[in-house]
Amino acid sequence: MPFKFNMGQSVEYKPVGGKIGLFQVTRQMPEEFRAVDRKYRIKCAGEGFERSVLEFDLSPANDAASYASVPQTVRATSRR
Question: What would you measure as the largest C-alpha separation in the chain, in angstroms?
Fold first, then answer.
Protein backbone atom coordinates (compact mmCIF):
# COMPACT_ATOMS: atom_id res chain seq x y z
CA MET A 1 0.00 0.00 0.00
CA PRO A 2 1.62 3.30 -1.07
CA PHE A 3 1.89 6.41 1.10
CA LYS A 4 -0.80 9.03 0.51
CA PHE A 5 1.51 11.99 1.27
CA ASN A 6 5.07 12.66 0.12
CA MET A 7 8.00 14.19 2.01
CA GLY A 8 7.89 17.98 1.80
CA GLN A 9 4.17 18.02 1.02
CA SER A 10 1.98 20.52 2.90
CA VAL A 11 -0.85 18.95 4.88
CA GLU A 12 -3.46 20.11 7.34
CA TYR A 13 -3.67 18.69 10.84
CA LYS A 14 -5.78 19.61 13.86
CA PRO A 15 -3.81 19.35 17.11
CA VAL A 16 -5.78 18.33 20.21
CA GLY A 17 -7.53 21.43 21.52
CA GLY A 18 -6.29 23.58 18.64
CA LYS A 19 -7.32 24.89 15.24
CA ILE A 20 -6.51 23.22 11.95
CA GLY A 21 -3.01 24.30 10.94
CA LEU A 22 -0.60 23.96 8.07
CA PHE A 23 2.16 21.38 8.56
CA GLN A 24 4.82 19.84 6.33
CA VAL A 25 5.58 16.13 6.04
CA THR A 26 9.19 15.59 7.15
CA ARG A 27 9.32 11.78 7.07
CA GLN A 28 7.33 8.70 6.08
CA MET A 29 7.68 6.23 8.94
CA PRO A 30 8.47 2.54 8.23
CA GLU A 31 5.51 0.21 7.98
CA GLU A 32 4.71 -1.62 11.21
CA PHE A 33 3.58 -5.24 11.35
CA ARG A 34 -0.23 -5.42 11.32
CA ALA A 35 -0.55 -1.64 11.50
CA VAL A 36 -3.97 -0.22 10.66
CA ASP A 37 -2.62 2.98 9.12
CA ARG A 38 0.65 4.54 8.00
CA LYS A 39 2.55 7.02 10.19
CA TYR A 40 4.23 10.31 9.30
CA ARG A 41 6.41 12.87 11.04
CA ILE A 42 5.13 16.40 10.48
CA LYS A 43 6.36 19.85 11.50
CA CYS A 44 4.82 23.30 11.74
CA ALA A 45 7.03 26.31 11.05
CA GLY A 46 6.10 27.88 14.41
CA GLU A 47 7.09 24.86 16.52
CA GLY A 48 10.50 23.59 17.53
CA PHE A 49 9.56 19.91 17.40
CA GLU A 50 8.03 17.30 15.11
CA ARG A 51 4.83 15.36 15.65
CA SER A 52 4.14 11.70 14.88
CA VAL A 53 0.66 11.30 13.34
CA LEU A 54 -1.41 8.70 11.55
CA GLU A 55 -2.34 9.11 7.90
CA PHE A 56 -6.09 9.34 8.56
CA ASP A 57 -5.49 12.43 10.77
CA LEU A 58 -4.05 14.35 7.79
CA SER A 59 -5.66 16.04 4.79
CA PRO A 60 -4.09 17.65 1.71
CA ALA A 61 -3.45 21.37 2.26
CA ASN A 62 -5.37 24.01 0.35
CA ASP A 63 -4.37 27.67 0.16
CA ALA A 64 -1.72 28.38 2.83
CA ALA A 65 -3.25 31.77 3.67
CA SER A 66 -6.52 30.17 4.81
CA TYR A 67 -4.94 28.39 7.81
CA ALA A 68 -4.72 29.79 11.30
CA SER A 69 -1.18 29.90 12.55
CA VAL A 70 -0.58 27.34 15.27
CA PRO A 71 0.81 29.09 18.34
CA GLN A 72 4.29 28.05 19.34
CA THR A 73 4.16 25.39 22.04
CA VAL A 74 6.63 25.73 24.87
CA ARG A 75 7.49 22.56 26.74
CA ALA A 76 7.80 22.91 30.49
CA THR A 77 10.98 21.57 32.02
CA SER A 78 11.68 20.86 35.63
CA ARG A 79 14.83 22.19 37.19
CA ARG A 80 16.22 20.66 40.31
Answer: 48
